[in-house]
Amino acid sequence: MMKRSLASHFALLISALSLPLTVFAADSALVQAKNMSAQGQHFSAARYAYSATETAQGAEQADAFATVTTSLIKAGLYQSSSYFFLKTLETKDKPAIRKVLVYAEPLMDRLGGDTLRDYLIRYTELNDYAANGRSAYLFSLGKAALLKGEENKALQYLNSVSTSSPLYPRALQLRGTALAIQGRNEESIDDFRDCVQASRLVVTETDTASNRYRQQIREKVDLEQRCLASQARVYYQADRFEDAEKIYDKIPKDALIWPDILFEQAWNSFARREFNRSLGKLVTYKSPMLSSIFNSENDVLQAQSYLSLCLYDDVNETVDRFQAEYSELGRDVKRFVEQNESNLPNFYALGVQTAKSPFNSKNNLHRMTNRFIRGPYFYGLMTQDRDIAAERGAIASFAQMTQSSDSAGLAGFLKEVLGFRTRTVRNLGGAFVRNSLIDHQLQLVADFEKMSFIRIEMLSRAKDKLVRQSRSAQAEEDERKRGAVIPNRRDYQMFWTFNGEFWRDELGDYVFGLQSECGA
Question: How many whole angstroms separate alpha carbon 434 and alpha carbon 428?
Fold first, then answer.
């Protein structure tokens, strides 16, 4: 059966919204709230229960907070319910807490784990949850332990997440990460492989025409692709480069993470001394489709590949181009961070602006910000921001239809709650963008240093090359054999000549044909 839409809830509740609340004592207001909730008049129930919270004490007040929480959730106002959910936990009243914990998982799905995690850990225990509703708590404990570097504890909690929970595929992703950190590669690969299969559980919305359904489908696809990439990374960690390459090749070229996958594949080829294949991956970034991608490490790896082939003119050209291209970008990022260091909303606004701009933007800030904002975390915050705005409009409509002020009673209080939620979401997003910009700026500085070392190494080798020129021709031929390994053609690949054009179906499959000059 299809879930009732938010609009249909509104239509059912209009007649009850204008009933006076002040004539009820706390206990009778709470009774009325529960009666209305049983009749499906959830927003009206929330209004009466909210009235009870202002005068009730102790367990009765805790019950009133829980009733507001459950009523708002049933009315589809998840963002608005968050305050009352957390207030219920803070009462430490077990019956009230157990009433709202039924909704911990769907709330976490809509609000993100960061909002609820600390509260669930601080105010609840495992036996507060129904046997089939513990996944939100266990997932919170597992992620908190992993963030602290306590992998064994994380594994203990994540092992108990229900295999039918929408959180299960993300638990597999975290568990695979913990196992990879511990060097338990085979187990880690199994978890990431299972994560790909279990990603379907992320989709809980049944209305296929809704924005939420489309958002969940995007999350499912993104999770599949990230778990595939994680499998490849663990194979790389285990020096199983051929297996890593096969997994990388499964990630479609229209995936959000594919531009980063190219770079990882280039490293995978470099590790096998297939320098020509590594250079072929990196040249793909010159395609008009990817030319705006910022990743200074691409150029560093390109310079290292040329250096490994002893192609010193190419090394020198790559270093010069790197310094010319990234000096201005580095200054722009540094200036923005310093000017807005304590203004998190400005960083959030930059992320939103970047997400709404064309992917091939030439704006330096957008180029760097594109490196991290198009993942599920920041997109999730943007979705919450839109949900908050939608709920604000819905509550204003309630107030208008009942000819009451939207600044009084529950409507007025929820307006404040949603204002707080907006600030929280934007501050979280701003902190993410700011910290990521700082990290990438530091990486850029480190890459400038690497390029300097590569140039020094190039000059040293060029000097040695001059000395070796007096060697016999046979010695030179023997020395030349130290060069690049000739890449093997896989059964799903063909070799083509390159005429300066980039075709979509060929992106990422280029292989250079350079000869090593290490013995010349």
Answer: 10
Q: Which of 34, 68, 101 is the last residue of a domain?
A: 101
**What confidence score (pLDDT) does residue 52 get?**
92
For residue 82, what are the domain limits?
A: 1-101
**Spatial contact of 442 and 435, defined as CB atoms under 8 Å apart:** no
pLDDT at 18: 42
Helices 6-17 and 42-53, axial angle in degrees (round to 10): 60
8 A C-beta contact, residue 96 and residue 62? yes
Residues 323-353, buried b or exposed e (16+ Cβ, 10 A)?
eeebeebbeebeebbeebeeebebbbbbbbe
Please count the other Cβ atoms lying within 10 Å of the Cβ belonging to residue 473: 7
**Domain boundary at 101, 124, 142, which?**
101
Q: From 416, 516, 510, select the one nearest 465 (Cα to Cα).
A: 516
Does any domain span residue 507?
yes
Asked whether residue 338 is domain-assigned, the answer is yes
pLDDT at 404: 55
Instruction: Provide the token pair at 404.
Output: 């009451």
Task: Please give the pLDDT value at position 471.
Answer: 55
For residue 514, is it within any domain?
yes
Token readout for 359 is 């992917």
Phi, psi of 305 (to 5 degrees): -65, -45
Q: CA-based Rg of the chain, rounded to a whole angstrom?
A: 29
**How far is CA 506 from its chain centroid?**
28
Residue type, 140: S
Q: How many domains are contained in the chain?
A: 2
Q: Which two three-digit tokens encode residue 268?
A: 């995978």
Using CA atoms of 287, 289, 293, 299 in order, give the dihedral in degrees to the nearest 10.
-10
DSSP state at residue 25? -
Pair 233, 264: CB distance under 8 Å: yes
Angle of helix 185-198 versus helix 211-237 axis, rounded to 10: 160
Residue 468 CA to residue 477 CA, distance in Å, equals 12
How far apart CA 93 and CA 96 sit, in angstroms, is 6
Q: What is the pTM of this model?
A: 0.82
Give the distance, in angstroms, between the CA of residue 399 and the centroid of all CA atoms in the same chain.
36
- Residue 121 belongs to some domain of the structure: no
Nearest to 421 by CA among 78, 113, 87, 91: 78
Q: How far is CA 401 from the centre of its chain?
A: 39
- CB–CB of 363/357 below 8 Å? yes
What backbone torsions phi and psi does residue 397 show, to the nearest 5 degrees?
-65, -40
Residue 23: pLDDT over 50? no
**Nearest by Cα to 69 from 39, 40, 37:** 37
Q: Can you give the CATH number for the domain in which 2 is found?
A: 1.25.40
* Residue from 5, 10, 100 nearest 399 by CA: 10
